[in-house]
Design goal:
By secondary structure, this protein is mostly helical. Helix content is about 70%, strand content about 5%. The protein has a two-stranded antiparallel sheet with strand order 1-2.
């Protein structure tokens, strides 16, 4: 007896998002780390870290950073939606724009508004769930394998941006000390990286050893890579006194950008597949 195909009246067409390979996840983690150093480079280093911490111009710094990266993100999402086929450089540029915008937006939510890491994380988690719910209600699936129309792409990038923002808030919450403003749990940057790295390992184990929904595991892994990158990015550029390596944010950003560009060129980058009616 022959096995029935999963989609009896469907063929497979190429998507404009990449296949979920090991290379995808490696580049994604580097991109989220770049988002942390790049976002901080603009909102804190270039716009004034001292006044931002003092609460004087931090509102402007985080808002300006969010506006700059947000406009860049909108432009790249527009190009991504209009593109006829998967373009690795365009896709990863859009991911980087979403994670840098997520960094500045998360800092604005947790610090400038004054709701702290707990309030910011809850607010952003609700935004992610709302995006996924609206996506499911509208199109019937939140599987990235079905991202094949402009509407699905719009939901995809909106969900990704909010997940990147949520990840930044979660990473900062675990790493920040109780005496910091806003106060955190105090695990430090390496401690936070170990926690989120361990959580990703659990997700990978569930993927290979259980029948847990692949869609659920994808979004769990996608969200968890962001706080992992946030804590690693902070470890690279925060002062020694706060447990970091005190690297220059612009230099760290350029190094990470070069590494991502090299990996995009060296690692196979192929489009994912989605079911398409014959």
């Amino acid at each position: 007896m022959t096995e029935k195909p999963a989609y009896p009246a469907m063929a497979h067409a190429l998507s404009k998002v990449p296949a979920l390979t090991l290379g995808f996840w490696i580049i994604k983690i580097l991109a989220t780390t770049l988002g942390e150093t790049g976002g901080d480079a603009l909102s804190m280093s270039w716009l004034g870290e001292t006044t931002a911490q003092a609460g004087q111009s931090g509102l402007n710094g985080y808002l300006v950073g969010t506006a700059v990266f947000g406009l860049l993100l909108l432009g790249l999402v527009w190009l991504q939606i209009r593109a006829r086929r998967f373009n690795p450089a365009l896709y990863w540029a859009t991911i980087i724009a979403s994670t840098t915008a997520g960094t500045t937006l998360a800092d604005f939510s947790t610090r400038s508004i004054g709701i702290g890491y707990v309030g910011g994380s809850l607010l952003l988690f609700a935004a992610v769930l709302l995006c996924l719910w609206l996506w499911y209600r509208s199109l019937g699936s939140i599987d990235v394998g079905t991202v094949a129309t402009p509407k699905a792409e719009a939901f995809y990038w909106a969900t990704i941006t909010f997940s990147q923002t949520l990840g930044t808030a979660l990473g900062d919450w675990l790493a920040a000390l109780p005496e910091d403003t806003p106060p955190g749990i105090g695990l430090g940057y390496l401690g936070g990286a170990l926690v989120f790295g361990g959580a990703l390992a659990v997700v990978a184990l569930l993927y290979y050893r259980t029948a847990v929904s692949r869609v659920t595991l994808f979004w769990a892994a996608f969200i968890l890579t962001r706080p992992l990158g946030a804590t690693v990015g902070d470890f690279l550029d925060k002062p020694f006194a706060k447990g970091g390596l005190d690297m220059s944010r612009p230099i760290a950003t350029l190094v990470l950008l070069a590494a991502i560009a090299a990996l995009i060129w060296l690692l196979p980058q192929r489009a994912g597949e989605h079911p398409k009616a014959k």
